[in-house]
């Protein structure tokens, strides 16, 4: 005669159900935390990208990737629970536990979306960095385009040839300075009208 007041099958089903729900709640909490981090990075990127560093994005990306791996491992482990057999060869699993385990695929979808979101944030950040680099190169190109003709003129007059009629002019030095200033201003105006400073 069995003096045990508890039914072993019911107690084990309850224990499995409790463990599965505990894992789901903890995982959902971790996903919510990771989602908040991704949303915060996205907000910073939109509002003040100068405050953001690539290491911040990489840290969150690594966290999301690790979380995704953990969720996948949990999903695989939880899928094996309905296949467990008791010593008598009978599968005893509560329908509620089975439905809960099947619904775990929703959490897999959440982690996949999180990974896509953080990849989007990283791509957006890289585009901003590329845009900044392009603006710097644009500025350097403008400066070079302005000063190359002036450097050529200065180089020609710096050769000190014996027969340079401009050297004998009374105001030749001032005329030269005014000429290169006019050239520089003209080039600046041309670049400005073509939208190179935008």
UniProtKB/TrEMBL annotation:
SUPFAM superfamilies: Magnesium transport protein CorA, transmembrane region. GO terms for molecular function: cobalt ion binding; cobalt ion transmembrane transporter activity; magnesium ion binding; magnesium ion transmembrane transporter activity. Keywords: Cell membrane, Ion transport, Magnesium, Membrane, Transmembrane, Transmembrane helix, Transport. It is a multi-pass membrane protein. Its main location: membrane. InterPro entries: CorA_TM1_TM2, MgTranspt_CorA/ZnTranspt_ZntB. The chain crosses the membrane at residues 6-24, 137-159, 171-192. Gene3D superfamilies: Magnesium transport protein CorA, transmembrane region. One of its GO terms (cellular component) is plasma membrane. Pfam families: CorA (PF01544). It catalyses: Mg(2+)(in) = Mg(2+)(out). The keyword Membrane applies. It is found in: Cell membrane. The keyword Transmembrane applies. Belongs to the CorA metal ion transporter (MIT) (TC 1.A.35) family. Mediates influx of magnesium ions. Alternates between open and closed states. Activated by low cytoplasmic Mg(2+) levels. Inactive when cytoplasmic Mg(2+) levels are high. This is Magnesium and cobalt transport protein CorA. It comes from Flammeovirga aprica JL-4.
């Amino acid at each position: 005669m069995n003096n045990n007041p508890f039914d072993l099958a019911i107690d084990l089903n309850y224990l499995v159900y409790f463990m599965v729900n505990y894992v789901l709640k903890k995982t959902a909490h971790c996903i919510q935390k990771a989602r908040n981090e991704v949303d915060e990075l996205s907000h910073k990127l939109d509002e003040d990208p100068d405050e953001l560093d690539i290491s911040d994005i990489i840290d969150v990306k690594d966290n999301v990737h690790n979380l995704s791996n953990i969720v996948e491992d949990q999903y695989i482990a939880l899928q094996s629970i309905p296949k467990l057999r008791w010593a008598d060869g009978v599968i005893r699993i509560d329908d509620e536990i089975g439905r809960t385990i099947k619904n775990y695929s929703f959490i897999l979808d959440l982690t996949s979306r999180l990974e896509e979101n953080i990849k989007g944030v990283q791509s957006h950040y890289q585009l901003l960095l590329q845009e900044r680099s392009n603006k710097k190169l644009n500025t350097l190109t403008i400066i070079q385009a302005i000063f190359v003709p002036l450097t050529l003129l200065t180089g020609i007059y710096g050769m000190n040839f014996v027969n340079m009629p401009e050297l004998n002019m009374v105001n030749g030095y001032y005329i030269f300075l005014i000429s290169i200033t006019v050239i520089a201003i003209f080039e600046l105006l041309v670049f400005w009208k073509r939208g190179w400073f935008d």
